[in-house]
Specification:
The chain has about 200 residues and is α/β, with parallel strands linked by helices. The chain contains eleven helices and four strands; from the N terminus they run H-H-E-H-E-H-E-H-E-H-H-H-H-H-H.
Length: about 200
């Protein structure tokens, strides 16, 4: 399993306080253990990495966030750094690069893999990359959208978020109205295009 491989890689260099298989569990575990470094993926079930990072930045302001992902989109890398991440690298990067990213994060520096920056100076890369547009959805609406797009029923989403199914239905209606979507298929397509969920199949 890829997660086990990364644990084996890091154990000689760091104390591993826990691992999580989805974003919601990651948030819970981080709040329980208060780690110095949090390594997360962009695409995580139940709560994507961006959402998890946004929540934890508020509650653990001293933590350093490192995105380790397959997503090579420069805009996503810039968005991650813009929301407070310390590093962004790819799962295809050399193993030594993850150790380097951790060292940079602990030293208060930003690191983005050269596989994305193409060796362009970091300040030039961040200046030139396209800036994401203003968010149309609230953090809660993005959570609801992701869970629905993952195929969960409204009652199941309500249980996960600890709110009523009626509230979920209201959120879904608001999301579709705000985004100009007509049906659930378009909702899923929007979530995939905006990397809130992975494409099915």
């Amino acid at each position: 399993m890829l997660l086990d491989a990364f644990v084996s890689l890091l154990e000689p260099h760091c104390e591993i306080v826990g691992t999580a298989v989805n974003g919601r569990r990651l948030v819970e575990l981080a709040l329980e253990t208060n780690p110095e470094i949090i390594i997360l993926d962009i695409s995580m079930p139940e709560l994507n990495g961006m959402g998890a990072c946004a929540q934890l930045r508020l509650k653990l302001p001293d933590a350093r966030f490192i995105f380790l992902t397959v997503n090579e989109d420069p805009d996503i890398a810039a968005e991650a750094i813009g929301m407070g991440a310390s590093a962004y690298l790819l799962k295809s990067s050399a193993s030594a690069e993850l150790i380097l990213a951790i060292e940079c994060a602990l030293a208060g520096r930003i690191y983005i893999t050269p596989l994305i920056t193409k060796d362009e100076p970091l300040n030039v890369f961040l200046h030139n990359v396209a800036k994401p547009g203003s968010e149309k959805l609230t953090a809660r609406q993005r959570e609801v959208l992701q869970l629905l797009a993952e195929g969960k029923a409204m009652k199941e989403v309500a249980n996960i978020l600890n709110i009523t199914p009626r509230t979920i239905a209201f959120h879904k209606y608001t999301i579709m109205t705000r985004l100009g979507l007509s049906n659930s298929a378009e909702l899923v397509q929007y979530a995939v295009e905006h990397r809130l969920v992975k494409p099915r199949g």
